[in-house]
Amino acid sequence: MDTLSYKTISANANTVDKQWVLVDVADVPLGRAAAAIASLLRGKHKTSYTPHVDCGDNVVVVNAEKVKLTGNKWSQKQYIRHTGYPGGQRVLTAEQVHFKDTTRLVEKAVKGMLPKNKLGADLFRNLRVYAGTDHQHDAQQPQAINLNERI
Predict the structure, then answer these.
(1) CATH 3.90.1180.10 fits 18-68+102-150, yes or no
(2) With a threshold of 0.70, does the pTM exceed it?
(3) Are 143 and 22 in contact (CB under 8 A)?
(4) Which of 93, 95, 100 is nearest to 78 (CA)?
(5) Which of 135, 65, 143 minimizes the C-alpha distance to 97?
């Protein structure tokens, strides 16, 4: 009997197969899009998924300016930060964040769904978000994924 057939294979940085993926988030709810993107970044869709290794794909997100928020979230959803000084709490609505930078909503939503450690920071570096349809990653030949079929 071959004892190697019973061993669990754990991926590492040398054995990971990273791909490039193109995701269009136009008219897709923000939370659903962010959950799917976080799963792609983490690598949970692969059979070689290993929780402590960056085995996810490089994700290019286009049309971030056309992402959809349901209900009254444009005016009621709040993004809170603190300057570090007493009384330095600052609050922006989703509409204000979107007006400042159209890609920031998608980035914040995805980052909130990644691990809060060094691995999460490394995974977040594999995300590229663009407001329109133009991106500079054509040379990597990203594979387009339809979120409406995936969700």
Answers:
(1) yes
(2) yes
(3) yes
(4) 93
(5) 65
